[in-house]
Amino acid sequence: MLTREQNELLTRVGPGTRMGDMLREYWMPAIRSAALERDGAPQCVRLVGENFVAFRATDGRVGFIDEACPHRSASMALGRNEHGGLRCIFHGWKISPDGKVVDTPCEPADRRVAFAAAQRVRAFPVHEVGGIVWVYLGKQATPPRFPEFEFTKLPASHVDVRRGLVHYNWVQGLEAHIDSSHVGILHSGFIAKGQIDTQSRDLNLTMVNIAPEFEMDMTSYGLREGALRDVGGGKTYARIRQIVLPFFTFIPGTKEDVCSGRATVPVDDEWDAEWYIVYDPNKPLTEKRLGALYAGASQDPNDFAANLGNHGNLWHQDREAMKNGHWSGLTRNIPFEDFIIQSSMGSNVDRSKEQLGAADAILVRTRRLLLDGLDEYQRTGIVPWRSDDIDFNAIRALAVTFPSGQDWRQFSPDILAHKAAAE
Ligand code: FES
Ligand SMILES: [Fe+2]
Q1: Domain identity same for 198 and 247
Q2: What is the pLDDT of residue 411?
Q3: Quick one: 331 and 199 in the same domain?
Q4: How far is the CA of 88 from the centre of ligand 1 (A)?
Q5: Protein residue whose Cα sits closest to atom 3 of ligand 1
Q6: pLDDT digits (tens, 9 = 90+) for 285-305
Q7: Could you tell me the CATH number of the domain that includes residue 90?
Q8: What are the two backbone dihedrals, phi and then psi, of residue 104, each rounded to the nearest 5 degrees?
Q9: Contacts 24+ apart (CB under 8 A), 207-211
């Protein structure tokens, strides 16, 4: 449970809020690379309560600027993207991808160049990897080190990135990703039917024992969590999650299955961008492997949650399917079950009304970390969870079954990486 004040502190992200100021210091996923065509339509991007426009210029570079034209605030989303810049259709001011006004055609010809050069544009550094345009919205003149997660270093054919826009606050998104104890309940309709391909075999183990024991380690990037289930026969099944604060969670598949990352990035206080990143370090992904994950979802990878539904239609819950044995009646896919449950809480849930139990320990811990991180940032100016020694590439989730009594930590790849580095 949080006080109302703590809840506000965690969830408010607009300009000038404490959380908003801190979140702007991280590289954020902003838009899928594929959504921006050279000289194509500029795209609106709303992030942490502000409106931006992204465009890809003739040479392939991406510009990321305020949506409001620096002249008189007409929307640059209406602009003409041509010949190396985005031109406002109102009076023709043209902005280059590096954020300079390069033309102001309504000004007298003799002073036009000097006038244009004197204008300021709010433009932001971008970095394009992993099929994502990332942006840095913070205050530092030099952007921070980019977190080179494993998926950002793989060939494009090994990575599938989709974004879903959902109507709830970003902390609800984060909490859905880290809450392991719901997996064997909420998702049991899929797991029981084995609809999720190879994952189901392992995930069945979450139903053998739906009250796992949690062990958590604080790490320099956030948290590493082992959800441990005694599955009989002297064996323990561990689902090891990696929580890279503030946005990322890496969730295990199985030995032969793909890795999966999620990012929950605030659009504003009441909307969240859910980034689903599926990747295979060793081989290209196939449609078949992705098909079940997104069954029934919108086929628009820029918003695969577009057809989620709403409270008015109870998100298309299928009571008939429930009669026939599906647990939740939210029959389309597993991500939608998560999105719908979070949406059902309202767009910014009041955490002062909760009644938490032992199975919610990771939520309590993560909220504490976020609040402590905020305090530390305010006191020292040091951005938490981004120390120079973090090997982001080694952070990977894992599901593993092993003889009970062994320590699950020995299977965690980032521990091995850090050990190797220390030797
Ligand atoms: S408002 Fe954009 S050029 Fe005038
Ligand atoms: Fe879930």
Answers
A1: yes
A2: 84
A3: yes
A4: 6
A5: 91
A6: 988 878 888 999 999 999 999
A7: 2.102.10.10
A8: -140, 80
A9: 208/232, 208/237, 209/184, 209/237, 210/181, 210/184, 210/185, 211/181, 211/359
Taking a C-beta distance cutoff of 8 angstroms, is the pair 401, 232 a contact? no
Q: Are residues 79 and 224 in the same domain?
A: no
Lowest-confidence region among 57-66, 82-91, 265-274, 399-408? 399-408
* Ligand lying closest to the C-alpha of residue 262: 2
Residue at which a domain ends, from 88, 110, 135: 135
Q: Would 252 be classed as within a structural domain?
A: yes
Q: How far is the C-alpha of 62 from the C-alpha of 163, rounded, in Å?
A: 19
**What is the count of structural domains for the chain?**
2
pTM score, whole prediction: 0.94
Centre of ligand 2 to C-alpha 343, Å, is 13
Measured in whole angstroms, how far is the alpha carbon of residue 149 from the centre of its chain? 13
Q: Which amino acid is at 83?
A: H
Domain termination residue (choose one: 78, 100, 135):
135
Of all atoms in ligand 1, which is nearest to the CA of residue 74?
A: 1
Q: Tell me: pLDDT of 200 over 60.
A: no
Ligand 1 shell residues, CB under 6 Å: 69, 71-72, 74, 88, 90-93
Range of the domain at 363: 150-422
pLDDT tens readout for residues 6-52: 999 999 999 999 999 999 999 999 999 999 999 999 999 999 999 99
Q: What is the CA(342)–ligand 2 centre distance, in A?
A: 10
Question: Is residue 21 in a domain?
Answer: no
**Using CA atoms in the order 333, 30, 271, 378, what is the torsion angle rounded to 10 degrees?**
130
Q: Are residues 92 and 175 in the same domain?
A: no
Angle at the Cα of 291 from the Cα atoms of 287 and 297, rounded to 5 degrees: 130
User: From the CA of 177, how far away is ligand 2's center (Å)?
Assistant: 6
Tens-place pLDDT, residues 86-104? 999 999 999 999 999 999 9
| 169 shares a domain with 318 | yes
Atom from ligand 1 closest to the CA of residue 73:
1
Ligand with an atom nearest the CA of residue 340: 2
Residue range 231-256, pLDDT digits in tens: 889 999 888 889 999 999 998 875 55
What mean pLDDT value characterizes the chain? 91
